[in-house]
Amino acid sequence: MAESTYTVTGMTCGHCVSSVTEEISQIGGVQKVDVELASGKVTVTSDQPVAEGDVRTAVTEAGYTLVAS
């Protein structure tokens, strides 16, 4: 298992959290997505390391911004 942590900006409510979670969950190999609304922290647990570009694309698709790491 691999775990990566990212910061997402622009989320303001539970719907935002759901959107980000849903989009990231569609990335192949992702097992779990934890989103903390207050901090914008997103933890992705997956079978193999997930490319940051894939996470960025998913977050953008949800309508938010992944802060550069």
UniProtKB/TrEMBL annotation:
Organism: Lentzea kristufekii
Keywords: Metal-binding
Domain of life: Bacteria
UniProt xrefs under CDD domains: HMA (cd00371)
Name this protein carries in UniProt: Heavy-metal-associated domain-containing protein
UniProt keyword Glycoprotein present: no
Domain HMA: 2-67
